[in-house]
Amino acid sequence: MSAQPSKDLETFANPQPGRDYTIRIRMPEFTCLCPKTGQPDFATLHLEYIPEARCVELKSLKLYIWSFRNEGAFHEDVTNHILDDLVAATAPRFMRLTAEFMVRGGIYTTVVAEHRAPNWQPATKVELP
Predict the structure, then answer these.
(1) In this structure, is the dihedral angle defined by the CA atoms of residues 98, 63, 41 and 43, taken in order, positive or negative?
(2) 10 Cβ neighbours under 8 A, 6+ residues apart
(3) Exposed site from 39, 68, 73, 118, fewest CB < 10 Å?
(4) What are the helix (H) ranges across the chain?
(5) Would you call 20 a catalytic residue per the annotation?
(6) Once rounded to an integer, what is the mean pLDDT over residues 118-123?
(7) Quick one: average pLDDT of 55-61?
């Protein structure tokens, strides 16, 4: 295998640092293990962020997400852990991670975690007629 899971998140310089713009990334193949039973948990992760100086490099993000496959984690903890690591790597103006876990025992879980830079203010929403 040429690639292996990795906890290293690589970044690159934001090509448009003077503008607020949104990057949306969908990761439909996230897996980790239930810390109680050891059974696999499956989720789709939705990452949305407004970069400051750095953007996350997608291949490193894929390998990072893959690194959770054999780790036991509660849904709430793993979502916040991933957000913390992405914020540490990119220092965005705003970042939201939504983790939609598949059904387990008749229950679906969705965890939403957010980060806002202290001095960042979102633009006013534009409503078109």
Answers:
(1) positive
(2) 56, 57, 59, 60
(3) 118
(4) 58-66, 75-90
(5) no
(6) 92
(7) 98
Catalytic: 32? no
What is the spatial distance between Cα 98 and Cα 103, in angstroms, rounded to a whole number?
16
Q: Check 34, 77, 84, 85 and give the catalytic one.
A: 34
C-alpha span between 51 and 14 (Å, rounded)? 7
pLDDT in tens, 66-117: 999 999 999 999 999 999 999 999 999 999 999 999 998 899 999 999 999 9
Reduce the DSSP state of residue 129 to 3 states and report it. Answer: coil
Structure tokens at 45: 């992760």
> Pick from 96, 86, 104: which is nearest to 34 by CA?
104
Place of tokens 């948990």: 41
Residue 83 tokens read as 């957000």
Give percent of the chain with pLDDT exceeding 90.
93
Mean pLDDT of the chain: 96
The pLDDT value given to residue 1 = 56
